[in-house]
Amino acid sequence: MCGIIGATSSRSVGKILIKGLQLMEYRGYDSAGIALNQKEQVFRLRALGKVSNLEEMMVEHKPKAKTGIAHTRWATHGEPSEDNAHPHGSNDEVYIVHNGIIENHESIRARLKKEGYKIISQTDSELIAHLIHFYKQKLGKTTQAMIEATKELKGAYSIAVIDKDKKGKVFAARQKSPLLIGRGIEENFVASDPLAIASVAEGFYLLEDGDFAEISKDKIKIFDETSKEVQRNETLIEATATATSRGGYKHFMEKEIYEQPESVGNTINGRLGENDVLNNIFGLGSSDAFKEVKRIQFVACGTSLHAAKTARKWFEDICETPCYIDFASEYRYRNPLVEENTLFVSISQSGETADTLAALEYAKSKEYLGAVSICNVPTSTMARDADWKMFTNAGPEIGVASTKAFTTQLAALLMLAISIAKSQDINKDKRAEATQDLRNTPSLLQEAFALKADIDQITENIASKNNALYLGRGMFFSIAQEGALKLKEISYIHAEAYPAGELKHGPLALVDDKIPVVALAPEDSLVEKLLSNLEEVKARGGTLYVFGNAKSKIEIKRGKFIKMPECGTYNAPIVYTVPLQLLAYEVACHRGTDLDQPRNLAKSVTVE
Ligand code: M6R
Is-contact 545 576, C-beta < 8 A? Predict the structure, then answer.
């Protein structure tokens, strides 16, 4: 949610800031803006919509400056408009960019109004600029003013600030929202994502909650929450240019779908033995701790939640462990009762999702056996906060719709189930079969891409409709949910998933010749029952698109049967995900939506 960047250099920083924003555009694209500290004044430009609009304005104005900040916005407080776009300024002096939410904005707004500040926007962020200005008037120093101003803020923020009177300096602060400093040659940076500055920074310092920083082109000073100057360890972060380019594909989402054999390969690489997972793949001591696991509590959001729901069956089957699964946004508001030896597992691609982080923080105050995180971004807050973790190693996922994040999370969850069963010395044969299935997954994913030709034949019909139903049973109901989520978020077609047996309890009323019904029919213990449910659709004249295999082949007059590769018991859900991703992608292309950056959404949801 919102990307922020700041730069101070011996060269002009305008282009660096714009490029950085483009690499963070996945975080929000309602508006973009830049403020540059020029000789006499701060020069500010703001544009509605995408960074490219701002870039065009930059070409027109050709501003030059060696210090600046910039922002790409996902609107929370106040509609997308120029007034609400960042950077926000106070008295033509202090300019800020902000990511996060200030919860006590109403009282701060009232107080600042009394102090005589003219508040122009509807945002909570503008208030930060005025607060810093207010304290600067009193204390004289910008860093000191920031320290005092942030003491008043409740909520989450990462902030970058420039001050007209402090040429060559960028100030920054972090509280529960990602922010890091990049060290360059005769230049330094601050950004909410390392990708934004990877091409110019030589090393990174991850700021901690409560940290402040003051950077100039040749100096980085970091202060902790007690205002004491501290050293943070320099970290190397792999963020290569190939990972952030489309590499010949039309969209990042397309590239990321086709990367899945490699990504899942990277998830399992170095973690599998011949017939089992290796010990301690979730971190030192994890294998011993897992001996005690009796129950599991999962929390996640969106696609990551679907991963947990899919994986439940593996945990029941391989490690005989009951699972509870909650939306992260709901979990801590229901006062969950924690039974003894329950393992808490949070799943998140970004590791920065506010709801999931808040759930993890809450869980730490409860009597869990410990917290495991499955996440894709090693520098994320979640990665730092958990007791044990597994990085999915999928590489940066830029498309807003999660694809490779999901299949790699499933691979990690299957390894967690095997790992717990191994620690408890149970179900050796199932562990061996699941391990072998994991090993076979990358090549099966590759085979699944051959389905594109079949999918092309059904794309047009689905693209012409406004609604779709997705059906599955058992684990494949959760895969159907994920398929429906993909379709709705990038094509804007309303899609709902149901366990096929539920159809007759209500949704069957929707079935006619205008609603496509997509069904997953793998060869499992429920296939006969599923086929009967599909007959109910056929009998009502529904159009059926069935993904199945030889055993589930049904005669379809209206629609199409698409034959899947032969999968194993444990990897079938991972492989069946691919055609649903391809289908959503092709339908969205057909409808001409902005599918890497669908309307109203953002990749990393760092607000509650
Ligand atoms: O980064 P996270 O996995 O925590 O994100 C959770 C959801 O916001 C995310 O999975 C979202 O549902 C997907 N972008 C949908 O494709």
Answer: no
Query: What's the gap in Å between 309 CA and the centre of ligand 1?
Result: 14
In whole angstroms, what is the distance from residue 284 CA to residue 282 CA?
Answer: 7
Instruction: Quote the tokens at residue 231.
Output: 């050293």
Number of the ligand 1 atom closest to the C-alpha atom of 305: 10
Q: Which residues pair with 372 in a beta bridge?
A: 345, 388
Q: Which residue has the tokens 């300024």?
A: 89
| Residue 375 annotated as catalytic | no
| For residue 241, pLDDT beyond 80 | no
Q: Is 353 in the pocket of ligand 1 (CB under 6 A)?
A: yes
Ligand 1 pocket check: which of 26, 257, 298, 301 to mutate, most ligand atoms within 8 Å of Cβ?
301
Q: Is the pLDDT of residue 605 over 80?
A: no
Cβ atoms of residues 423 and 290 within 8 Å:
yes
Q: Are 539 and 549 in contact (CB under 8 A)?
A: no
Q: What is the mean pLDDT of residues 575-598?
A: 95
Token code pair at residue 533: 């449910």
List the structure tokens of 538.
């056929």
What pTM does this model have? 0.82
pLDDT, tens only, 292-337: 999 999 999 999 999 999 999 999 999 999 999 999 999 988 889 9
Q: Which domains does the chain have, with CATH numbers?
A: 2-243 (3.60.20.10), 245-426 (3.40.50.10490), 450-596 (3.40.50.10490)
Q: What is the mean pLDDT of the chain?
A: 93
User: In the annotation, is 603 catalytic?
Assistant: yes
Range in 494-498, 550-554, 596-600 the model is least confident about: 550-554
528: CB partners within 8 A, 6+ apart:
none
H helices then E strands: how many in the chain? Answer: 18, 25
If one residue of 402, 481, 482, 577 were mutated to test the ligand 1 pocket, choosing by the most ligand atoms within 8 A of its CB, it would be: 402
Q: Is 304 in the pocket of ligand 1 (CB under 6 A)?
A: yes
Q: Tell me the pLDDT tens digit for each residue of 508-520.
A: 888 888 899 999 9
For residue 444, which of 561, 567, 548 has the smallest C-alpha distance? 567
Question: Regarding predicted confidence, which is higher, 243 or 467?
Answer: 467
* DSSP secondary structure string for all residues of 462-522: HHT-SEEEEEE-THHHHHHHHHHHHHHHHH--EEEEEEGGGGGGTGGGG-STTSEEEEEE-
Q: What's the pLDDT at 364?
A: 93
Which residue type is seen at 414? L
